[in-house]
Amino acid sequence: MAVSAAAQPPEFNHLTVENGLSNNSVLSIVQDSRGFIWLGTSAGLNRYDGSKIKVYTPDSNSSQSLWSAGILSLLRDSKSAIWIGTNTGLNRYDEQKDNFERIRLPAIGTAAINCLYEDHQGTLWIGSSKGIFAFLTNGTKRQRLQFTTPRGAPVTTGVVRTIFEDHQGNLWIGTSNGLIRMWKERQQYFSENFFYDPSRPESLSSNNISVIYEDPQNHLWIGTQNSGLNLYRPANKTFRRFMAGNGNRGPIHNNIRSLVARNNNELWIGTQEGLSVMDINNGVLTSYQNEGDNVKSLSQNSIYSLYKDSNGSMWVGTYFGGVNRVDAFSTGFKVIRNNGSSNTLANNVVSTILEDNNNNLWMGTEGAGLIFYNRKNQKYQVFKNEISDPFSIASNLVKVAYIDKDGNIWCGTHGGGLNVLNKATGKFLHYLYLPGDAENANLEILTLTEGGEGLFWVGTSRGLRVFQRKGLQLNELPLKQINNKLSGFIASTLYTDRKGQVWIGTSSGLHVIKHYVLKTISTTLSVNTIFEDRKGMIWIGLRTGGIASWNPVSSQLTRYNHPGAPSANILGILEDPNGWLWLSSDEGLFRYNPVSKTTLSYSVSDGLAGGEFNYNSHLKDHNGFFYFGGYHGITYFLPADIEVNPYKAPLVFTNLWLGNRQVQINAPDGLLKKNISHSDQLTFRPNQNLFTINFALLNFIKSDKNRYAYKLSGFDRDWKQVHNPAATYTNLPPGDYQFFVKGANNDGIWTEPIMVKIKVLPPVWRTWWAYAIYTFLLAGVLFLVIRFFFLRALFKKEEELHQVKLNFFTNVSHELRTHLSLIMAPVEKLIDINHKDPFTSQQLMQIKNNSNRLLKLVSELMDFRKAESNHLDLRVSKQDLISFLQDIYTSFRELSLAKNIRIAFTHNSNQVFLYFDEEQLEKVFFNLLANAFKFTPEGGHISVTVNTQPGFTEIIVSDSGRGIAAKYLGKLFTNYYQVADHGMQNTGYGLGLALSRKITELHHGSIRVESTPATATTEGRTSFFVRLLPGKKHFEGNAHVTILPGRKPFPPATRQSIPIREKPAPVAPAGIRIKRQTILIAEDNPELRALIKQQLEPYYLVHESADGADAWENAKEHLPDLIISDIMMPGMDGIMLCNRLKTDQRTCHIPVLLLTAKSTQHDQVKGLENGADIYLTKPFSTKILELHVNNLLQAHKRLQEKNMRELRFFAASTQSVSTEDPQHKMDSDFLAAVTTIIDEHLEDPGFVVEQLSRKVAMSPPVLYKKIRALTNLSVNEFIKTRRFKKAAALLLQKGLTINEISYAVGYEDRKYFSKEFKKYFGVAPSDFNQHILEQHKQMLNTNEII
Questions:
Q1: Distance CA 1297, CA 1251 (A)
Q2: Does residue 577 form part of some domain?
Q3: In terms of DSSP bridges, do strands 90-94 and 334-336 run parallel, antiparallel, or are they unpaired?
Q4: How confident is the model at residue 447 (pLDDT cuts 50, 70, 90)?
Q5: In terms of Cα–Cα distance, which of 1308, 1312, 1316, 1310 is closest to 1284?
Q6: Is 1303 exposed, middle or buried (0-12, 13-18, 19+ CB in 10 A)?
Q7: Sign of CA dihedral 962, 966, 972, 973
Q8: Positive or negative, the Cα torsion across 391, 392, 395, 400?
Q9: What local confidence, expressed as pLDDT, does residue 867 receive?
Q10: Which residues pair with 211 in a beta bridge?
Q11: 963 in any annotated domain
Q12: 3-state secondary structure string, 540-586?
């Protein structure tokens, strides 16, 4: 192996069908204006972008495709249009539409387009199998013509294979029948022919011309199909022949197919048997062919096309091997590795590379020992371990090698210690090695260096060792003699700088020592390698992907992150003449510029032996060559030979994918109207939410190293760097974006970004017009909402006003009822007193009748209030409508006679049974007839007619009154409405007809009115039509309707009859009662309260309270026998008072009678639910009130007697006094509790009233009144009863003596006990038996104890 800077053969990179090429026969090549390489093959046209190939083939169904798949010629004209010559016709590529225009030539049949050429005037010349054609373009006009001579004859009768214009404007045409030169004078073309003349060696070598080309030195070259290459001599119009077989003075083969100049000095010649490269200056040719196993040689020898691209790279199209590319900028990396021969590198894992004083190389390997390379004889010598030779190297695993100042070779090994070669004897001396010692078997010598003071430093896997070297002899020195801090250091690298300082790099820091003084630079750096540049700067290669520098002048440590490979281990550092640092790593080789802080990276594709280098395996030799050892051999190079590709290649968009489907131009999806590289904007619909944009950097030099960065402005925050030229986005929010992408070529030269706008349309519901609709809808909703709240406020205000009216009527009704009670009660009493005085009775009856009429009006107001609040309940039953109406009709007879009004009642059926509420429907027809009489003048007539029809019954009430104007009819049934016409004033509230309509509608019927106003000549007529439904089905499911059996419903509370015994007890005559009972009256109206008190005071002890709260306090204090309470009172109302009375154990036994103007069923139920015993509506009869009071007190007295008998009948047990009335359960529970407490203390003679009151949490007076109210017994009598009941039970058991029994029931004195027992049972305890007990019970049943 010769290591020199001699010129190397070109390296050919291959592109074949394995890479996507449609066919390996590449017959023509061209580069378009955007930078794509177009390759014409025998099976289609290929567009190459550096990573992907797009193939175009003919489509029989499309006129916008190629004529045929055989592509013979390609041309890019001055307008950047691509012309394609096929074996059946001519095509022109439409770049925007990405399709082809078919050009028809003025020739019969198809023609193979062999060549295409554009002259300096823009004329397109077409050489074909049918002659030469010219294609002229004048503005928008195109002219195609077959070129002939001025005489009209064809320029040639042969096949035109090549056309070329020289620098003088001559047009050279190569045919199968000679060479033609044409020139233009005075708008005419003239021609001159050149032919092969066997007798003239200076003539053409053959008439079969294949290619014509003019080089940069204006030499015109003519290639022939079988007779080599010709150089035209214009001075004498002769030719110089270059033929194969003349060594380096001729091409490799005489079939010349393509010519192109690489530069001013090189002419590339493509032949049938390979590539020949001519040095134009001296005419020397160098030929290249396929070399079998050399992957960088020509892929195949049969060359058909040559092309130089815009970057200077050469493209070589072959017939069987695809296309080859020779890059314009080469990386001159060379490789030393084991090639299997006897004279080669023995092992590819190289740990150390050294150059000795004789410029020979020493290489340590991990597996083949130490290798010596002699540059003079180019021979390798291997020093390996020989088991039989104790003076051989101790281990073949050489980790480090070092040449000391005397030129001695030292080798640190794994398991073999430290070895030094004696060059004189060829034997090795061993240190730190004992054969067979297990401890030394794993010892590794990692690094070596020689510092000042003659110290030899050895870094091992177990720490630092320092020796004093003399020649080949080493004497170890204790570390503490040098520096105590050195102990424990495990050095990964040792390095001696030009000042003699020894640098120690470890996995946890960097240190330097000189003159036994140790200085620590860093305790955080993980150091792999150390290097001093020519400026004295110390560079440190780090294990964590970067480098650091130490400036000895400023004592500043600076760390640099590695931009090319942030995770790479930097394993070796060398400096080139430009001051750039070359860094070997486990991820390739890097060139770092310390000034610009930029990095270039190199990989296997650049020619490196491998991508992973070894620790500290590097060398710069005397010639300036750099060597880096790795796991796949040695890479060496001269830094100046490593060219940088400065070309900023074009960056273009290539494809658009929607999902996994490539988007076509003018496809139904509508995404692309033209080629994506010419599209300014891409617009996606909402359902097109997954798309991929392909792009390509048209740098073909090591295109696998091209890098890209893209960013979607408005979506991505940072640039995304990728190697794959594609960007995929999914579910982009609707909006406008800008997609930017930039590319870097193989040497990291970045282009300017290119951009395409992206618009993602919103879904239908997010478009501007949708938002406009939303705005209108929102405005409409807001309007409706505002209108709703406005109307609701109005309605609320109206409702509040309405409620004010209703509450006013309710309160007025309540007050009226109260005052009517004050009027009617005295009147009734006066009528009873003066019934024998006719005149006084008549006047009193008039007062009573008017009071009743006023009461009816008040009741109507109350019914209207209930109807408006949806609380008017119906109690319907099946009744005869005819007899019902007859009764109402009869009640108006006297009024008709008084007003001289004729009335009539007609019906078409004698009986009509319907379900209706008699009381409520009576109000309807009373109102209608009352209004008829009110507005009918004397002498008029009124009729009531009943018509029974299938499905309904209609009642018509008509009168001949003044009538109602049509404009008032619609408002007639409105609340509070009154017709004010004819100059007359109506009386009333305007509620009668409104209430009538409500009641009719509650019966699921209807009411309407028809009226004709009276005139001067005719009487008016007004008719009300009430329609009712048969049956009761329409009432079912209505919570406000109760269907009752029988003819009539239960009368309401105002008419309830009071159950009176046939011979009632006199209304409390004074002689009957021993003790007057107590009544509490709770009424806020003082007059009514005084009236009730006046009525009851002769017979009862009456207490008064003006409100509920005072009544409650009064009841707790006095425990009255009965309470009469109004409901509507300030503060605590009657309902609340009743509830509190009935839920308090002290007052729950007191009967409550409620007086109120509230007469609804709901109000009655509410009062009774809260414990009221009687619910009496105002106005009321004082007689009825007296009877109710008397009956309640008599009922309470009977309850007392019952409780007393039960207490005397039952045995002395804790059983509760039974009652079937749930209302009295609290009283029963109270008596049971008191009985239980007494029974528990019967043996205690001191258990009296005070102790019992404390147990039941009542004061003695309250307890006394409570027990008296329930049992008519005093507390002491109650306790005594329980004691004697217990004594009787014990006596009947006969288990104890009388003395013991007396103690058991709380009597300490036996005699006193016997005396009291005899008073209770009538016999002494000794005479008591079962018979006596039965007699006692019988006596209690027949006698009432007061």
A1: 28
A2: no
A3: unpaired
A4: very high
A5: 1316
A6: middle
A7: positive
A8: positive
A9: 65
A10: 223
A11: yes
A12: EEECCCEEEEEECCCCEEEEEECCCCCCCCEEEEEECCCCCEEEEEC
Q: Determine the Cα–Cα distance for residues 1 and 379; give it in Å rounded to an integer.
A: 8
- Domain harbouring 1284, CATH code: 1.10.10.60
Does 491 fall in a domain?
Answer: no
From residue 1112, alpha-carbon distances to 1106, 1123, 1125, 1157, 1188 in Å are 11, 10, 11, 22, 22
On whether both 1182 and 1219 belong to a single domain, the answer is no
On whether the pTM is more than 0.85, the answer is no
Separation of alpha carbons 468 and 431, rounded Å = 13
- Average pLDDT of the residues of the chain: 85
CATH number (domain holding residue 90): 2.130.10.10
| pLDDT tens digits for range 148-158 | 666 666 777 78
**Which secondary structure element, helix H or strand E, spans residue 803, and what is its range?**
helix 768-833
Q: Contact at 8 Å (CB) between 570 and 585?
A: yes
Sign of the C-alpha dihedral computed for residues 883, 884, 885 and 891 taken in this order: positive
Identify whether 716 is part of a domain: yes
pLDDT at 1066 > cutoff 80: no
Q: Do 958 and 1020 lie in a common domain?
A: yes
Please, are residues 60 and 50 in contact by the beta-carbon 8 Å criterion?
no
Mean pLDDT of 673-689: 92
**197-229 pLDDT, tens per residue?**
999 999 999 999 999 999 999 999 999 999 999
For residues 895 and 756, membership in a common domain is answered with no
Residue whose tokens read 């900023």: 648
Rounded to a whole number of angstroms, the CA Rg of the chain reads 65
Rounded-to-integer distance, Cα 236 and Cα 1139, Å: 143
User: 879 in helix, strand or coil?
Assistant: strand
Identify the weakest region by mean pLDDT among 414-428, 1028-1042, 1131-1145, 1208-1222. Answer: 1208-1222
In degrees rounded to 5, what are phi and psi of residue 85? -100, 120
Pair (1085, 995) in one structural domain:
no
Amino acid present at 1049: P
State the DSSP code for 883.
H
Give alpha helix (H) positions in 371-478.
438-441
User: Encoding tokens for residue 511?
Assistant: 């240190």
Question: Three-class SS string for 1213-1263?
Answer: CCCCCCCCCHHHHHHHHHHHHHHHHHHHCCCCCCCCHHHHHHHHCCCHHHH
- Bridge partner residues of 279 (DSSP): 266, 284
Which DSSP helix (H) or strand (E) runs through 39?
strand 37-41
User: Distance (Å, rounded) from C-alpha 365 to C-alpha 360?
Assistant: 16
pLDDT digits (tens, 9 = 90+) for 597-619: 888 999 998 889 999 999 999 99
Please report, for the domain that includes residue 917, its CATH number.
3.30.565.10
Identity of residue 1096: L
CA neighbor of 446 nearest in space, from 511, 395, 490, 499: 490
8 Å CB contact between 397 and 414: yes
Answer yes or no: are the C-beta atoms of 499 and 529 closer than 8 Å.
no
CA dihedral sign, ordered 480, 485, 490, 495: negative
Q: Per 3-state DSSP, what percentage of the chain is helix, strand, and coil (rounded to 5)?
A: 25, 35, 40
The first and second tokens of residue 402, run together, are 């070092």
Q: Could you give the CA distance from residue 919 to residue 16 in angstroms, rounded to a whole number?
A: 110
Number of alpha helices (DSSP H) and beta strands (DSSP E) in the chain? 21, 78
Share of the chain above pLDDT 70, in %: 88
The DSSP 8-state label assigned to residue 750 in this structure reads: B
Q: In 10 A of CB 566, how many CB atoms?
A: 11
853/109 Cα distance (integer angstroms): 125
Helical (H) or strand (E) element with 626: strand 626-630
Q: What is the count of structural domains for the chain?
A: 5
Q: How many residues does the chain have?
A: 1346
Kindly tell me the sign of the dihedral angle through the C-alpha atoms of 1314, 1316, 1319, 1321: negative
| Ramachandran sector of residue 268 (left: φ over 0; alpha: ψ -120 to 50; beta: rest) | beta
Note down the domain range covering 1149.
1054-1194
